[in-house]
Amino acid sequence: MSATKSEIESIEADRRVLELLAQNFPNVSAASSEIMNLEAIMSLPKGTEHFVADLHGEYEAFRHILRNASGNIRRKVSEAFGNAVRESEIRQLCSLIYYPERKLELIKSEEDSLDDFYRVTLNQLIKVCQSVSSKYTRSKVRKTLPQEYAYIIEELLHESPSDDDKQAYFNRIIETIISTGQADAFIVAICNVIQKLSIDQLHILGDVYDRGPGAHQIMSMLCDYGSFDIQWGNHDALWMGAAAGNECCMANVLRLSLRYGNMATLEEGYGINLVPLATFAMETYADDPCTDFGPKVDEESAVDEKTQRLWARMHKAISVVQFKLEGAMIGKHPEWNMDDRRLLEHIDKTRGVLSIGGVDYEMKDSYFPTLDPADPYALSTEERVLVDKLMHSFRMSTRLRKHVNCLLSSGCLFGVYNNNLLFHASVPLNADGSLKEVELLGERYSGRELFTRTGMLMREAFNADTPDDLREYAIDYYWYLWCGPDSLLFDKSKMATFERYFLIDTATHREEKGYYYQLRNNEEIVDRILDAFGVHGSHRHIINGHVPVKTGNGESPIKANGKLMVIDGGFSKAYHKTTGIAGYTLVFHSRGFQLVQHEPFSSAEDAVLNGTDIVSTTQIVELSQHRMRVRDTDKGAELQSQISELMELLVAFRHGLIKERRSK
Questions:
Q1: Where are the alpha helices (DSSP H) in 72-146?
Q2: What is the structure's pLDDT at 582?
Q3: Are 503 and 364 in contact (CB under 8 A)?
Q4: Phi (first) and psi of residue 100, to 5 degrees
Q5: Is 121:114 a contact under the CB 8 Å cutoff?
Q6: What's the pLDDT band for 581 if we cut at 50, 70, 90?
Q7: What is the greatest pairwise CA distance in the chain?
Q8: What is the Cα gyration radius of the chain?
Q9: Are 249 and 479 in contact (CB under 8 A)?
């Protein structure tokens, strides 16, 4: 059959694209084979997406949730063996999968017959691995396999010991693994494969940093993880701003680290030299008990009282520096309309009050040895030297720069994946629920364009070819993102840090949330936001974090008739008393959505020794009547587009419009 006029016109219009495509698929046979391959992939079940938010440096808990895939591995093990094995054996097998190296050490010290253990365990692990790999192509599975065992694992995954013709072959592979002394290494390898295949795509909805001690460890893990994306949170922006050279951001980073007694990320993680701050604090605040600046550390903490007293003085010293720097920043940018946050000029040290609008607010602490009433936002000579030294340390940290580059390359302020809109905090709204216009560089933006333009501005702080004045503004804007009233990462009336530290009247501590937080349970408004971001489909959702869900008070993370899900349940230990739990994760697999509520994690040691796991409760949010396939996803749309191009290439080949070539 000859090509139609419209087909010929389409081919001519797409000729350049088709000629490039023909370089990889040079003839009818190659193009046809690829079409068959893509069509087969489209029929596979959708991969499992994993959503987490607000990790706040809790490396051990986060690592365990990745290792157990929010309970998905436990479910796969239970399905694979049912009632054929005891509950204690299931726990031990899961513990081995999560922590293979450490669990093997323990087992080898207790097991009388190692060969029997290896034989049984290898068969069990292969069965579990077959289950988690069943929804992927052989090619994708192959890419996850360690090079040294790739061939053997692939053979075992695609052979069944129940097949009489293959029984001896299968068993012989197992016996040879044991007899050659490779059982330990092979078990570790296959456990790691199970972990990797249990999560197809990892979504981080912001706030890797602050509070907990292991943010740098989380970032190192993510940089090597592979299939992940991140929607930046306000705490991430704070560290990015510090790395870019924003002194206000740097001071906040230091203050938060001292407030939560988290020095590991600064000193061990990024090599920040805190000796200048300690020296300055001991000299300047030696006579100040700094009572309200003691670190929030656990009662069982190993930090002695002397160290805590030092941290308290460092905490107050950097806090005063922060308020000075922030006041100067607000003066530099009157367009941000934040003059109400310039509070140092209202301090009356002699009376111990803060006087605003004729009202005196009693202060808990009025000892400010470096504050000049005539110029309250000027750093003293010693403070200026201190800030310069600290900033040099931040700018010289190669590991911090590497992690920020990872955030930039793998992240943005929002993402749309498979009809789900992801962002960290909020979408600025007006009182009536309409999208609020926010000024940025003299222009006004709202909704998707506001997120896009803000993300572009954030990147300008790190682009080598950015004009100096634009780069300076971009660096400054990181602080506004942290605490500006119209910031899409903050969206509150104010950040009452000064009031909480210094004012007795708790009414001054109140921070009014933006309209998004007040209206996000309204399905109509959620639909309006989804429309504005171009998210379509009958099953579409907003997924975000930022504000801990007070589960203990009966608050639900599922809002707007299931169209909005808040998955910050409080990973940070500092939130556990408020939330009553230790975090949410959301799992989106081929059957639908499951929200997993986690209890506090004990430790990896406990998991290895006793087979304990994070106690989790799974709530089914939304199930599909039909199992979702790859063709139903964003990836499926991409593959369908490739298939259409290949079909057009076939027509071009068959009618001589593009010449075939022999495959290489």
A1: 72-81, 87-98, 100-110, 114-133, 138-144
A2: 62
A3: yes
A4: -60, -45
A5: no
A6: very low
A7: 96
A8: 29
A9: yes
